[in-house]
Amino acid sequence: MNSNNAKAVVLVSGGIDSATCLAIARSQSYACYALSFNYGQRSTSELDGAKKVARAAQVESHKIISVNIGELGGSALTDDSIEVPEKETSGIPVTYVPARNTIFLSYALAWAEVIEASAIYIGVNALDYSGYPDCRPEFIAAFQNLVSLATKTGLEGGNISIETPLINFSKAEIIKSGIKLGVDYSDTVSCYQASEHGVACGKCDSCRFRKKGFADAGVNDPTHYV
Amino acid sequence: MNSNNAKAVVLVSGGIDSATCLAIARSQSYACYALSFNYGQRSTSELDGAKKVARAAQVESHKIISVNIGELGGSALTDDSIEVPEKETSGIPVTYVPARNTIFLSYALAWAEVIEASAIYIGVNALDYSGYPDCRPEFIAAFQNLVSLATKTGLEGGNISIETPLINFSKAEIIKSGIKLGVDYSDTVSCYQASEHGVACGKCDSCRFRKKGFADAGVNDPTHYV
After folding, report:
1. φ, ψ (nearest 5 deg) of residue A62
2. Residues of B whose CB is below 8 A from A73
3. How far is B72 from chain A (nearest CA, A)?
4. Taking 90 as the threshold, does the pLDDT of residue A212 lie above it?
5. For residue B52, what pLDDT is reported?
6. Which value, in Å, is the radius of gyration of the alpha carbons in chain B?
7. Nearest to A161 by CA among A137, A143, A179, A177
8. Which residues does chain B have within 8 Å of residue A139's beta carbon, measured at their own beta carbons?
């Protein structure tokens, strides 16, 4: 909970986790400022999902920032020459985008400082996830530590809190929480290679976690799969 | 020093500090990958400076990434409605760009991971500087801590070292070091509001530090001032 009129920057990718995270920030009475990124991801229908999710949550403002991570290469999500795996793999998968959450949180931090927000919400999850290093609590703690040292706000004794309400939730718990808060999951897109119209492959990591989450939660999955 | 063929990403703004920092990375036998940002700064001649500096240092590659920090507002360097001060001010000046070095280092980290660089060089300086929080050793230490947790490289036991060779140098010491290493400072641009052709105002913080640095070093300042 927070004092009246407190602002939060909420990272909104257009998937299940960020839609739920936004609903939680709203339920905690924050005035929400949604932030999305166009980073050369394969699936731009993700961004259409982000727009629908932000609109449905009646955010104060929604910014979509173009970031040229793709130009630096190195991930199946931004580099067409690397295939998205359609079977489970071990270790950190090729869909890992180097330093993605560090970059996203850095922009969120900049915006939070400008609008004097007291929190940044990010829907990372360390349980039903793909093994990305920058989804772990240790990473979030290190970024929180950076915040106080990186900013004018921190230097002047203020704080911007990094909030990760989903970090210990299973995908099923995330979906159940969202349903309670009225999230319409038909707005969301999870697939790493969804078609222009949001039709999901049903095979990539992200689709597999989504399907299993809905099944485990006993909730109907509104996704259109190929 | 480093093992043969080690790579370093070097942040190159086009000013004195980054030109010197690049020369130092080269003198330590790194193969250098220069990274600059077009972030809506007032002075785009800074980027012309960065190109000349990178070319003179014979870097392996030079990337200029567009980052839309200006879209988030809040700084005299990116927002035309805020004037660049031409007299000394107290506290953190309006030229402070929220979370700038956090964003720049995040991109450098992403590139370093992709090319398997072992170091990132940044020419921050905590002595003759403008009071920006993200130029302090504490900030760099916090980012170094983040690196090991944010990346696949870190998770796999590797390291990317954040190098700040100038952090305790005076501006005069920076200039003297650069001269020894053959830096041509006529390539560099410091002014926050330099003209298209690189003519400097001579009045902003950055110009004042530059002039004093050359005077203290007893070296002729090649800058064209208004």
Report:
1. -135, 115
2. 114
3. 6
4. yes
5. 95
6. 17
7. A143
8. 146, 149-150
Its pTM surpasses 0.90: no
Is any Cβ of chain A less than 8 angstroms from the Cβ of B114? yes
**Terminal CA-CA length for chain A:** 41
Task: Say which of A67, A73, A107 has its CB closest to residue B114.
Answer: A73
**Residue A74 forms contact with B (CB below 8 Å):** yes
A positions 156-195 inside 8 Å of B (CB): none
Using CA atoms in the order A194, A200, A205, A211, what is the torsion angle rounded to 10 degrees?
150
Decide if B226 touches A, using CB distance below 8 A. Answer: no
Decide if B74 and A114 are in contact by the 8 Å CB cutoff: yes
DSSP designation for B184? -
Interface mutation target, options B35, B115, B151, chain A, most CBs of A under 10 Å = B151
- Tokens representing B60 are 């392996």
Cβ separation A136–B143 shorter than 8 A: no
What pLDDT, in 10s, does the model give residues B46-84? Answer: 899 999 999 999 999 999 998 877 777 766 666 666 676
Nearest residue of B to residue A73, measured between CA atoms: B114
CATH superfamily of A7-217: HUPs (3.40.50.620)
Average pLDDT score over chain A: 88
**Per residue in A77-97, pLDDT tens?**
666 666 767 776 666 677 777
pLDDT confidence of residue B164:
97
Q: A139-190: per-residue pLDDT in tens?
A: 999 999 999 898 888 888 888 999 999 999 999 999 999 999 999 999 998 8
Work out whether the CA dihedral A117, A119, A123, A124 comes out positive or negative.
Answer: positive
Which chain A residues in 132-151 lie under 8 Å from chain B, judged by CB atoms? 133-134, 136, 138-139, 142-143, 145-146, 149-151
